[in-house]
Write a structure and sequence with these properties.
The complex is a heterodimer of chains A (about 110) and B (about 230). By secondary structure, chain A is an alpha+beta fold. Chain A has two helices and five strands, in the order αββαβββ. Classes of the chains: A alpha+beta (about 110), B alpha/beta (about 230).
Chain lengths: ~110, ~230
């Protein structure tokens, strides 16, 4: 059985670690500016930024199904909240596909 | 001064049975004294042969120890033929342990994560997978502080498990009730990938260079992603 895919991005404790290294600020700002216009799509190990403003979640699910290995029954979350396939995306949003609990080892539908 | 590494491996099914051999080989060539305790209340069955490595259909912990104790004589192997439950987790997971957890249910994940949260110094590396993808979580506590997030901090569903601890499930079965959790098919290669990543994570722990809470792996798209990307 897999461990959960959805990360707890709200309310968790922000703990530091001794090995933290400061990122390059120019690179970070450039990436941030580009990312603000795009939608970040995540499914498990798969993640990328796409120009998806105005597209629906359903169309993203369909088009990235093979590339991101997204199961047909995966739940779509925008900033942690569940949305339907007719949800229209805006730039800068974070779209994450997560599996339902209790689908251990099940080949995707 | 020789260091003593106390390692606990919880669960030697699809992932755990492939983790023990390289871990033992690696530890055999360190200067430290090493003790590996393998904990599993389950027994190998013929149906496991498709993915799991064993010679005899007996308790998984005992079978694994008998398989490797002669091959790696430097390591002191111990077996505990029991599932972890409330009444034995305290004695099983102790200060300074390095815990590899390879189980298939959230109830045990929560139990072990919570126990580690009570200790001052402990490393917990937990792995799990579905058919072609999975993840590992690395929970480190040092001097009473969390250096990375616990399993229950990361995943709310683990903090409120909907499944049952296999030890309790066994008691229900023995009482004549039907088995509630049905095994779903798994893929050997995914198990291997998770076991390998757990060992990679252990190496990063040794180097004190862990800069992630977890790593996602997908063998369909051949990708791995540590999370978060910036720590």
């Amino acid at each position: 059985m897999s461990q959960e895919r959805m990360e707890n991005t709200s309310g968790s404790k922000n703990r530091g670690i001794a090995t933290y290294q400061s990122p390059n600020i120019d690179v970070t700002l450039s990436r941030a500016t580009n990312a603000m216009k795009k939608v970040r799509v995540v499914h498990g190990a798969n993640q990328d930024y796409f120009d998806l403003e105005g597209r629906t979640v359903g169309s993203v699910r369909k088009n990235l199904r093979e590339v991101f290995n997204i199961p047909g029954d995966a739940e779509a979350l925008i900033s942690g909240k569940s949305v339907g396939d007719d949800f229209i995306l805006e730039g800068g949003q974070n779209l994450e596909f997560v599996k339902e609990a209790g689908t251990k080892g099940k080949p995707r539908p | 001064m020789e260091k003593i590494r106390k390692i606990k491996v919880i669960g030697v099914g699809g992932i755990g049975c492939y983790l023990i051999e390289p871990l033992s080989r690696y530890l055999s060539y360190t200067e430290d004294l090493c003790e590996i305790t393998i904990i599993d209340g389950d027994s190998y069955e013929e149906v496991n042969r498709e993915r799991q490595r064993f010679s005899n259909c007996k308790n998984k912990a005992e079978e694994t120890v008998s398989r490797y104790k002669d091959e790696f004589p430097k390591i002191h192997f111990r077996s505990k033929k029991e599932y972890l439950k409330d009444d034995n987790v305290i004695s099983s997971i102790r200060e300074n342990d390095i815990v590899f957890m390879c189980v298939d249910n959230h109830a045990t994940r929560k139990l072990v994560s919570d126990r580690c949260g009570e200790l001052d110094n402990v490393t917990l590396i937990s792995g799990g997978n579905d058919y072609t993808d999975g993840n590992i979580i690395c929970y480190i506590r040092k001097d009473g502080q969390d250096l990375t997030k616990s399993l229950t901090d990361l995943h709310p569903k683990i903090s409120q498990p909907q499944d049952k601890n296999p030890g309790e499930l066994r008691e229900i079965e023995n009482a004549g009730c039907e088995r509630e959790a049905q095994q779903q098919p798994q893929l050997l290669f995914t198990n291997l990938s998770i076991a390998s990543m757990m060992l990679n994570c252990y190496r990063k722990c040794e180097q004190e260079k862990v800069n992630f809470h977890q790593v996602y792996i997908d063998i369909e798209t051949l990708r791995a992603r540590p999370s978060p990307e910036t720590f």
